Amino acid sequence: METRVAVISIIVENNDTVEKLNALLHDYGQIIIGRMGIPYRQRSINIISLAVDGPQDVIAALSGKIGALPGVSAKTAYSNVVGNA
């Protein structure tokens, strides 16, 4: 199975969705390499960057589920690095 390395950028504007977001991240923990979160208190938002390595369809599913949360946006940038699981 081919895997890709990618970065998912997440902006959380609605703090009521943080619990659901964390549950999603826990469910997909096997593909998460690392996570960096920055609370931007002056604008009342949170900025999260996820480094992931997994099948492209799994990464896309995670990004889509995150972006479907109310008040949350997500964008994914894929590298050209392809490996095998």
Short description:
By secondary structure, the protein is of the alpha+beta class. The chain has helices at about 20-25, 55-65; strands at about 1-10, 30-40, 45-55, 70-85. It has a 4-stranded antiparallel β-sheet, with helices on one face.
Strand order of the largest sheet: 2-3-1-4
Beta-strand share of residues: over 45%
Please tally the helical runs, counting DSSP H or I stretches of 4 or more residues: 2
Low-confidence segments, ≥5 residues, pLDDT <50? Answer: none
* Count of β-strands: 4
Mean pLDDT: 96
The top level CATH class name? Alpha Beta
| Shape-level CATH architecture | 2-Layer Sandwich
CATH superfamily: ACT-like. Chain A, domain 2
Number of domains: 1
